[in-house]
Amino acid sequence: MSTIIDKIKELKTQRNAIILAHNYQRGEIQDIADFAGDSLGLSQQAAKTKADVIVFCGVHFMAETASILCPDKLVLLPDEHAGCPMANMITLKELKIKKKEHPNAKVVCYVNSTADIKAESDICCTSSNAMKIVSSIPKEHEILFIPDKSLGGYVSSKLNRPMILWEGYCPTHHRILAEHIIKIKAAHPEARIVVHPECTPDVIALANHVASTTGIAKYCKETDAREFIIGTETGILHRLRKENPRKVFYAITQLADCSNMKLISLEKVLWSLEDMIYQVKVPDDIAAKARVAIQKMLDLS
Ligand code: CIZ
Ligand code: SF4
User: Fold this and answer.
1) 24 lies in which domain range?
2) Neighbours of 16 (CB within 10 A)
């Protein structure tokens, strides 16, 4: 009897598809993926592949980024409701008003944003390269950093560069509290505390290391410590444990679970390949403008 995984593999070959999975996906989804990684790394894989179809296991803005970088491929998101609350905390209308208030400002846009917001921005950044991107903007310009006030605030304080911050945030990362860290650190005093810059400043202040998911994976692999306390979406623990079987990882809190990321299941990946759903296609005019902001980032990083 063939299993659901066999069926997915079979259809993947028939459709000439690849499966990309974000580091925050369920473990079983990461395990069947051709590549697991962060949103930008996955979109770059999408742009490189010879496959005709990309099944993007992540949230909507990530599938959009893949569509922007490879307009000729068919990009599928296995659950059309997998969105990102932070990306939805800014609208085009609001952004245009803010830009009018600050005509000299350059807009730096975190990739966790919709395609039309990227299209209205000067340059994109990810949590891996935000420091470099912000540093590249000449001092005579103000910077409007959207939509994540936590990542923006972190970069601003590290670089000592004032920025106008949008009031957006990731509800998942904001459920990680300093008091959770103090408690878990007391139980595991030797463990390193590693957190994502989408966390609040008081959480970041307690960390030994602050990084993107790619940066967290690299740090945990390369650092001699044996125990790590991880402050980001809990899906990353699957990858960390798989890559470092001799090390021990603790989630700061199980509350850091992104329900949107977890909407994707093996069944939905199968249905996605069976019915070629749900197609994500950014309209050409918006994609062209958004691509400029993404390309500027890629050229710098
Ligand atoms: O850029 C990404 O994929 C996100 C959302 C987080 C990270 O740090 O990788
Ligand atoms: Fe959005 Fe946060 Fe979920 Fe990432 S973890 S998709 S930023 S809500």
Assistant:
1) 2-83+261-281
2) 11
Read off the CATH number of the domain in which 115 is found: 3.40.50.10800
Buried/exposed code over 268-288 (b: 16+ C-beta within 10 A; e: otherwise): bbbebbeeeebebebeeebbe
Task: Tell me how crowded residue 15 is: count the other CB atoms within 10 A of its CB.
Answer: 18
pLDDT digits (tens, 9 = 90+) for 182-238: 999 999 999 999 999 999 999 999 999 999 999 999 999 999 999 999 999 999 999
Which residue's CA lies nearest to atom 6 of ligand 2?
84
Q: Residue 84 C-alpha to ligand 2 middle, in angstroms?
A: 5
pLDDT tens for each residue of 62-107: 999 999 999 999 999 999 999 999 999 999 999 999 999 999 999 9
Domain presence at residue 53:
yes
Does the beta carbon of 83 lie inside 6 Å of ligand 2?
no
Are the beta carbons of 278 and 76 closer than 8 angstroms? yes
Distance 17 CA to ligand 1 centre (A): 23
The set of protein residues with a Cβ atom below 6 angstroms from ligand 1 is 22-23, 38-40, 111-112, 126-127, 196, 212-214
**Residue 102 and residue 120 share a domain:** yes
Is residue 151 lining ligand 2, measured as CB closer than 6 Å? no
| Position 43 confidence tier, pLDDT thresholds 50, 70, 90 | confident
**Does residue 213 lie in a domain region?**
yes
Asked if residue 256 belongs to a domain, the reply is no
Total structural domains within the chain: 3
